[in-house]
Amino acid sequence: MASLSSDPFDELLATPPEPRHSSQTASPSTHSPQSLNSPNGGADRTLRTRRSNSPYSFAPTSPSVDAAARFRSRMSTARDLNQFVSKIAHDLGLKDDELVALKRFSKLSDEERELWTAGQVIKIASSISVFQAPEVPYQIPARMEASLVLLMCCSAHLVPQAALEKAICVIILNPHAASYRDEGTLKLVIAALQRQPSSGFASIEDDGAKVSVVESRASIRLGQRLNQIKLEIYKSIGKPGDVVDELTVRDGASDVIALTSAILAICKKHVKVNPSIPLVARVAYLRTMFMKARGDDEKKTNADVKQYWQNVDSSLQALRKNKENDVKRITKYFARNLERDRKIYGSSDAAFGQLAPTAATVSDSEP
Question: Where are the alpha helices (DSSP H) in the chain?
Fold first, then answer.
């Protein structure tokens, strides 16, 4: 007989019963006279015979009752655990496949859970080892940003301590700018920084990542200012009116000097510019290019005119090539376009007489 401390239910599940043979059947002589003469008679004898011949170990209490109780307890625990797993999944917002994985984990033994956790830790540690900490984004020093003033202009009208905004306004208001949005502008920025020892650019010029930060900053600022100019041009065009000398006059439009003043107002906090005939002529050219890109569709808005500055750059390049970079021929072209603009959008001869005949001068604006 097995020990009383063993689990009868587990043994029932683990050990198959041995077959009974006729030789194991007890003979009447093996039983005492008392058992034969007991009130239960053969019943007691049969029970004792079955106990003596059974390969199983019986505890003092009924094994079937204990096994059923333990089975019900395990089922209840499993139900409680499944409910807790579902609650965790809900609280953490786990996906369906993640919920399934969590349920499987909950059914593992303690040893299996430890091994699974150890495997996950090893996998995570291996993954982390391949990562590298990102570099700290490069910050443009104040002295370098101030030196960007000289970056995009052809003359040193601004004081060296001016900020990036001043540099951008200078290139926008330069009546002789070769381009506005192509790569040549950024090349001028880098070249000018290299010529300015006080900018600190020499310390980072061999670091491509840091140079890219400077270029990106200048490009974004420049794009924002150009978009403001384009909007002012759109607001100045008015509505189509009468046809005069084969040109459609625009009613309610702003003349070129008024448009130039509106553009200068964009940069008034950063630079103070004295308008000149070359600058007004360049503004008239920018409006001509806008109307060419817009076409005859009066319903088109400013946002509908795409790639405007890229088209301006291409047109300027083609103009220089067509005129063979002859300054006089190019100047004559801008003068004719300016006269055309005055006929379409109007102009005041008195106001024109007050314009400086040479390129705009730039100086610090009043605080």
Answer: 8-14, 33-36, 42-53, 63-92, 96-106, 110-129, 142-147, 164-172, 183-194, 208-235, 256-266, 277-294, 308-322, 327-345, 349-353
DSSP string, 170-185: HHHT-TT-S-SSSHHH
Residue 185 shares a structural domain with residue 319: yes
Handedness of CA 158, 163, 169, 174 (dihedral sign): positive
Residue entry with tokens 């053969």? 42
* Structural domain contains residue 222: yes
Quote the crossing angle between the two packed helices 277-294 and 308-322, to the nearest 10°: 120
pLDDT band at 224 (very low <50, low <70, confident <90, very high): confident
Give the pair of three-digit tokens for residue 339: 């006269």
How many domains does the structure of the chain reveal? 2
Query: What tokens were used for 50?
Result: 């079955």
More confident position, 10 or 268: 268
- Taking only the tens place, the pLDDT of each residue in 86-140 is 888 788 888 888 888 888 888 888 888 788 888 888 877 777 655 555 555 666 6
CA atoms of 271 and 158, how far apart (whole Å):
8
The maximal CA–CA distance of the chain, rounded, in angstroms, is: 149
Domain assignment of residue 58, given as a range: 7-14+38-107
Residue 293 burial by Cβ neighbours in a 10 Å radius (0-12, 13-18, 19+): middle
CB 254 within 8 A of CB 197: no
The string of pLDDT tens digits covering residues 265-306 is 998 887 778 789 999 999 999 999 999 999 888 899 999 999
pTM above 0.90, yes or no: no
- pLDDT value, residue 159: 26
The per-residue pLDDT for 231 is: 96
Confidence (pLDDT) at 132? 52
Based on the fold, state whether residues 147 and 103 are members of the same structural domain.
no
* Cα 36 to chain centroid, rounded: 94
Spatial separation of the C-alpha atoms in residues 206 and 48, rounded to whole Å? 100
Do 218 and 291 reside in the same domain of the chain? yes
Across the range 33-50, mean pLDDT stands at 47
The CA-atom distances, in angstroms, between 86 and each of 32, 74, 91, 101 are 63, 18, 9, 12
